[in-house]
Structure of Zinc ribbon domain-containing protein:
Amino acid sequence: MKCAKCGLDVPADAIYCPHCTGDRKTTDRQVIQGGIRGAAIGLFIGLLPAALLLFYFGAERGIKGIAFIVPAVTFTTGLIFGLVRAKKAWK
Ligand SMILES: [Zn+2]
């Protein structure tokens, strides 16, 4: 039997994968790392339309506001998604 998460061999009678579980200390770290990764991806995704907006419409007052809000929203969304995903993957 192989673990679906790490792909390492697990004894057939094992309830938990000994390679994945056991070290509880790394759990929070993994979740935080997932969150940081998600936030970075979110920020990157948000900066693209923001840069395009500034490029096409110039740094007008309204455009500046949108160009600031879009990456902020995608950053937060990415952070939450990353945290949730990392937590789910670990459980
Ligand atoms: Zn495993």
Residues 3, 5-6, 8, 17, 19-20 surround zinc ion (CB under 6 Å).
